[in-house]
Amino acid sequence: MNPYIIASAACFAPIVLWTCFLAYTQIKAKWATLRWEVKVVGAVVVAVGLIVDVVLNIIPGLILGFGNWTISQKCKRLRKDDMGWRGDVAAYLCENWTNPFDPGHC
Predict the structure, then answer these.
(1) DSSP 95
(2) Number of domains the chain contains
């Protein structure tokens, strides 16, 4: 496989995942007031984000350990149970990338 494709995917997949997460937090917060067509498109965005999350967790996310389907679940577990570098990475991701937008997410 072309190494440029792999490098591009490694760079852009986390950006797509985080963008979908940000969209998810806003859709979740405003769900009761959204019109049906916005809910439909929002559900597609959330589904794409979930697929990217699972794929990232299965392929490069294996480095952080097994046992969870999504990176958020894995970060919650590692933050609590792992006192090494994996726990440090999980704490960094939670404190700086998810919790500011969805308090208590992990």
Answers:
(1) I
(2) 1
Q: Which domain holds residue 37?
A: 3-98
DSSP secondary structure string for all residues of 44-66: HHHHHHHHHHHHHHHTGGGGG-S
Is 70 buried (19+), middle (13-18) or exposed (0-12) by CB count in 10 A? middle
**Alpha carbon of 79 to those of 11, 39, 40, 87: distances in Å?**
24, 32, 34, 5
> pTM, whole model, 2 decimals?
0.72
**What's phi and psi for 36, nearest 5 deg?**
-60, -40
CA distance 101 to 91: 15
Give pLDDT tens digits for 29-64. 999 999 999 999 999 988 988 888 887 777 655 665
